[in-house]
Design goal:
Pfam families: TauE. By secondary structure, the protein is an all-alpha fold. It has 10 helices and no strands. It has one domain. Helix 1 packs parallel to helix 9, helix 5 runs antiparallel to helix 10 and helix 7 runs antiparallel to helix 8.
Length: 253
């Protein structure tokens, strides 16, 4: 696939914004994937290229949680296995969906994902920091990892948020502890889906790596901003990018 300078000029600023938004308010994936679609990449290539840049920030966050000893390896192990299976299936399904149908599917999934990610009422931060390793916790982690893994393999944005919701609502963990477990699973689903897409010849490596650098720079700057309400930037930014994507889909530009 030939990538022009115009593509970089469209994608890189938007992916930088995605990193900024993700660091201060969450939901960066709802900007980064549409950025590739707005730039004119076909759906399969857009999803694959987005996954090239995604693991970098997730890996850094996972390392920080691991260093703080917030990741429970006994709980993470079966969840990671389930996540690999789910992401593998989701990516295979995505690759088998024709491009024109996938375009319509993404147009439906995007606003739904945005609503769920931005709806903070779905989060429950009254859970415990301690993880009780019982049947309920293992089932929650394994089932959530498989289902959300399928979603991440097929599409992606909002994966971490959906995992956090599952852990806080069903496993009764607080957001910080839930986030730590979610990052391990999210990194696994990212890498699994990326491997499948690259094996099938999807994704633009040069654009993906440039996007990764922009995303990490945005995340670094966003993490340094002292903001009490990150949604003041996150919500309008996501809505704006989805609006641009809608115009693109309607053939306005």
């Amino acid at each position: 696939m030939n990538i022009s300078l115009h593509t970089f000029l469209v994608v890189c600023p938007l992916v930088f914004l995605a990193g900024l938004v993700d660091a201060i308010g969450g939901g960066g994936g709802l900007i980064s994937l549409p950025a590739f679609l707005i730039a004119g990449l076909p759906p399969h290539a857009a999803i694959a290229t987005n996954k090239i840049s995604s693991p970098f920030g997730t890996a850094l966050a996972t390392y920080r949680f691991a260093k703080a000893k917030l990741i429970n390896l006994k709980l993470a192990a079966p969840a990671v296995v389930a996540a690999i299976c789910g992401s593998f299936i989701g990516a295979q399904i995505s690759l088998r969906v024709p491009e024109h149908i996938l375009s319509y599917v993404l147009m439906v999934i995007l606003p739904i994902s945005a609503f769920l990610v931005l709806n903070k009422k779905l989060f429950n931060d009254e859970g415990s920091e301690e993880i009780t390793l019982n049947r309920r916790t293992y089932l929650t982690a394994t089932i959530a990892a498989f289902i959300v893994g399928c979603y991440d393999g097929f599409y992606g944005p909002g994966t971490g948020t959906f995992l956090i919701i599952a852990f806080t609502v069903f496993a009764h963990l607080n957001i910080q502890t839930a986030n730590a477990q979610a990052k391990v699973i999210n990194l696994t689903t990212n890498l699994t889906a990326l491997a499948i897409f690259l094996y099938n010849g999807q994704g633009v490596l040069s654009l993906g790596l440039a996007s990764a650098a922009c995303n990490m720079l945005g995340g670094y700057i966003g993490a340094g901003l002292v903001m009490k309400n990150g949604s003041k930037i996150a919500r309008p930014s996501i809505v704006f990018v989805l609006f641009l994507l809608a115009l693109k889909a309607l053939g306005v530009y």
